[in-house]
Backbone:
């Protein structure tokens, strides 16, 4: 609750009392918070009846983190929730700050006529409770607990080199113009998870504890391509009949290229 009030103050919104904040947050259908070093730097939430009417509320980003893709991360999560929760024909509204309309248009929202405030979107897909809806949301999931992986973040020391490598390696494109120390790469077809890169001062120590498995129907051809743009072969003794090859990116982070024919 205190972080919510702090975000409101930072973006210049009015004071609200604690009781009102507590009731509002508890009444949210969904909430998303982006943290940096354990501190909330962006958030957004959804209110409504959970089926036909939804309103996107309180999309806020600390001023010092604006322009770094935080707002887009919030809206990516909000949109994914709505895709799973909103019934066919559901109305989703929001109030956009002046000058931010084009940002929300990227997520399918339309401006209302000039004499009417706000923006809106009408969802056309599976009905709440249908078999398709249950497949999207997952067994036992509740609306307020729905989350997804929005991005995998790679820490790096040589930001330009790593950005160029992973953009070419994945054939992704920047979601927004890259900053000097932060970029989000996204699948141009919108099917796979985002990959983000951020500049950090400390070097990598030891083996990375998380790695990519890159699937392809032409493993050897992809390995040759990746070696040509800066990857290296990781020295190891392969097991018989392995379907993968272990590579390292320009800063030594390991990843696998795996033969997948289906």
Residues:
């Amino acid at each position: 609750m205190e972080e919510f009030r702090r975000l409101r103050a930072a973006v210049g919104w009015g004071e609200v009392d604690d009781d009102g904040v507590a009731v509002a947050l508890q009444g949210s259908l969904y909430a998303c918070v982006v943290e940096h070093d354990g501190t909330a730097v962006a958030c957004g939430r959804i209110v409504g009846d959970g089926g036909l009417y939804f309103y996107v509320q309180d999309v806020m980003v600390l001023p010092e983190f604006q322009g770094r893709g935080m707002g887009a991360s919030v809206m990516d999560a909000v949109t994914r929730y709505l895709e799973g929760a909103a019934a066919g024909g559901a109305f989703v509204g929001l109030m956009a700050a002046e000058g931010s309309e084009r940002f929300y248009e990227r997520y399918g929202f339309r401006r209302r006529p000039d004499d009417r405030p706000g923006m809106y979107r009408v969802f056309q897909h599976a009905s709440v409770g249908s078999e398709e809806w249950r497949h999207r949301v997952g067994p036992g999931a509740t609306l307020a607990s729905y989350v997804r992986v929005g991005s995998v973040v790679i820490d790096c020391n040589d930001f330009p080199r790593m950005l160029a490598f992973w953009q070419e390696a994945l054939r992704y494109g920047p979601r927004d113009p890259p900053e000097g120390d932060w970029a989000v790469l996204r699948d141009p077809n919108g099917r796979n998870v985002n990959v983000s890169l951020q500049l950090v001062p400390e070097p990598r120590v030891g083996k990375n504890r998380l790695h990519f498995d890159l699937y392809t129907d032409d493993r050897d051809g992809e390995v040759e391509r990746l070696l040509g743009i800066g990857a290296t072969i990781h020295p190891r003794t392969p097991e018989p009949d392995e379907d993968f090859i272990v590579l390292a990116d320009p800063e030594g982070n390991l990843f696998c290229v795996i033969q997948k024919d289906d």
